[in-house]
Write a structure and sequence with these properties.
mainly alpha
């Protein structure tokens, strides 16, 4: 500083001299000096210090928006998979994702997602079967969900105003959902068939959120269609056929049948169309309960109400004898599946079987049709095999080619029966051919009966197995014959004495004399026991009819002839076992029943010859020849008696 500057101004006091402290206070500090040196950076730091709260808030708002957008998108995707909440869909709970838990409504509003959140919350509530707190506004998804809510109200409490509002909302909704939503008023108006057609069309290219509601519409339309058809009295066969063409699952069918309950008994009134109606109704039952009817409940009650009408129809159809049995056979098979304990074609339907047989006994074609008719119900009247033999074997007639698997049961059994009889008459080659056919027939039989265990199925299996056992025994295939006989016995073949008799013959052919002898005694005892039962049932025509249709002879003369033959077979076995006295005694008992039985004298003479009682044997042989007289029948017996007399020589 120069001296001039330090000098006081003119005319004044001299200038004060600053102290060191004052100088220090007036000088800038380190920060000030740094600010003076870095003004731009200092301003930047000042801006950050002042604006940081605003930046943090902006970041928070951005993060919240991103979280809500992600959560709402995931929730929307989950709800779309669950489907639009139409009134008839199954209840489903679709909770919001975790990131949306506890978010207050204000946050949705601040983030700009309030309308979307209200829409999804309403969608979720409707899926859960709950009325939403607030209906969404706006178009698009909001209008679609709002339409679903209004349709729900219209379905539970019909209101034309609500329905109009729902249709208006649906028209402003998502484009792909409009066609699905348009089916709701059609369903409410009872246009079930139209709804089903449209659903099938839309399901081909339906978006995910329409797939579930379309299926719900299909089920509800099917449910209403079923109930409407079954409520008709009686339903037309055309309407029932339409029900069969529906793609209805077992639960819907069971629900519809259970809803009718005991009223189902009103559906089968007298009339020509009732057999077809019965077939349709029973088909619905079988589809509804593929594993069998429940033992109780509305469905079981409905079946019990319907069953008498089915029995009546089948009884009338089989008792009529003429015409096509195809529909009756199908009805019979369906009824047997539903109720394996009931015999739907009782013996009473064949009360005039003998008169009918007499009408056709000399007409082979009608006779075979008659056989098919009774065999269709699993019955085999006594003597039918002998009559068939006389027409189709003695005359050399062929039963024709084996029936295809779809033919009726009676045709299949009759064909097998006639083939067996023809094979017995024609020799070994015919037996081999018949046995091959029997294998094919068994496959068809099981296909027709398809696991059934009802009385008819048991009778058919038993009859078939017994015919097969007879054929196998004739072919000398004893083990297989015994196996077939066991199948016949397991199926309850009647009459039991025929089983025992055949078993005795098979065991004798195997050389098992003791077993054959025991079984022959059992067969004779069973036959005599049955004769006693016939005497008891003499005053009960229904019981005797059932005996006859099961293959039992009930006339005294036939029973005596069978008892005679059983004693003679027993006598032959006794003679083979060296029990000649018992054999001779059995023969004499047989001859008391039939004094002119030449084979009885032959067996007696052979037993006496073995016992060394030659004179008695000679007298028995002469008596047998005298009984035969000049008849040309029983040539083999005549030859055996002459050979025996030749061995014995003159007196």
């Amino acid at each position: 500083m120069s001296q001039d500057a330090a000098a006081p101004p003119p005319g004044g006091d001299p200038a004060p001299t600053p102290s060191a402290a004052a100088e220090a206070a007036d000088s800038p500090g380190p920060l000030g000096r740094w600010v003076r040196r870095q003004p731009v950076f200092a301003l930047l730091l000042l801006g950050l210090a002042v604006g940081s709260p605003f930046g943090v808030n902006a970041l928070r708002r951005h993060a919240l928006r991103a979280r809500l957008a992600s959560g709402l998108a995931r929730w929307h995707a989950a709800l779309s998979r669950a489907g639009l909440p139409l009134p008839w869909g199954e209840r489903r709970r679709v909770l919001p994702p975790q990131e949306l838990a506890g978010v207050p409504r204000g946050d949705y509003a601040r983030a700009g997602f309030e309308e979307e959140a209200v829409t999804l919350q309403a969608w979720s509530a409707l899926l859960d079967g709950v009325d939403p707190e607030e209906l969404p506004r706006g178009d698009g998804w909001g209008a679609t969900v709002r339409a679903c809510a209004l349709y729900r109200s219209a379905a539970s409490a019909p209101s034309q105003a609500t329905l109009v509002a729902a249709q208006r909302a649906a028209s402003r909704g998502v484009g792909d959902a409009r066609a699905t939503l348009a089916l709701v008023p059609a369903l409410l108006d009872g246009e079930h068939e139209r709804v089903l057609r449209e659903v099938r069309r839309l399901q081909r290219n339906a978006p995910a959120y329409c797939a579930v509601p379309l299926e719900a519409l299909r089920r509800e339309a099917t449910r209403r269609f079923l109930r409407e058809a079954l409520s008709e009295r009686p339903p037309s066969t055309q309407r029932l056929q339409e029900l069969l063409d529906l793609e209805a699952d077992t639960a819907l069918l069971a629900e519809a049948l259970a809803a009718e309950g005991a009223r189902l008994g009103e559906l089968l009134s007298a009339g020509a169309a009732d057999l077809a109606r019965a077939e349709a109704l029973l088909t619905l039952f079988v589809r509804a309960y593929p594993e069998g009817l429940p033992a109780d409940g509305a469905a079981a009650q409905g079946w019990r109400a319907l069953r008498p009408g089915v029995v009546r129809l089948l009884h009338e159809r089989f008792a009529a004898w003429g015409g096509d049995l195809a529909t009756a056979a199908r009805v019979l098979g369906l009824a047997a599946r539903l109720d394996p304990e009931t015999d739907f074609v009782p013996a009473s339907a064949f009360a005039d079987w003998r008169a009918r047989l007499n009408e056709v006994v000399d007409q082979p074609a009608e006779l075979l049709s008659y056989a098919e008719h009774v065999l269709e119900a699993g019955w085999a009247p006594s003597g039918l095999d002998q009559i068939l033999r006389s027409h189709f074997v003695a005359a050399g007639a062929s039963p024709g080619p084996p029936p295809p698997g779809g033919r009726r049961l009676g045709e299949l059994l009759a064909d097998a029966w006639v083939r067996r009889l023809a094979a017995e008459a024609d020799g070994e080659e015919a037996r081999a051919t018949a046995l091959d056919a029997f294998g094919e027939h068994r496959t068809r039989l099981e296909a027709l009966l398809s696991g059934r265990r009802d009385p008819l199925a048991r009778r058919a299996r038993a009859l078939f197995a017994f015919q097969e056992a007879l054929l196998l025994h004739g072919a000398g295939r004893s083990p297989e014959a015994l196996a077939a006989l066991a199948r016949a016995e397991a199926a309850g073949f009647r009459p039991a004495f025929r089983l025992l008799d055949l078993r005795s013959r098979i065991r004798a052919a195997e050389g098992a004399t003791d077993d054959a002898l025991r079984t022959a005694r059992a067969s004779l005892a069973a036959l005599e026991d049955f004769q006693a039962r016939c005497r008891e049932a003499a005053s009960d025509p229904g019981r005797l009819l059932r005996f006859e249709l099961s293959g039992h002879p009930v006339q005294a003369v036939l029973l005596d002839a069978l008892r005679c033959e059983a004693r003679l077979r027993l006598a032959a076995l006794l003679a083979d076992a060296g029990k000649t006295d018992e054999a001779a005694s059995a023969c004499r008992e047989a001859l008391r029943l039939d004094p002119r039985n030449a084979r009885g004298y032959l067996v007696l003479a052979q037993a006496l010859e073995r016992a060394g009682r030659r004179d008695e044997a000679r007298r028995a042989a002469f008596e047998g020849l005298r009984g035969l007289g000049a008849s040309g029948r029983q040539g083999s017996v005549r030859d055996a008696l002459r050979a025996l007399l030749k061995r014995l020589g003159p007196n």
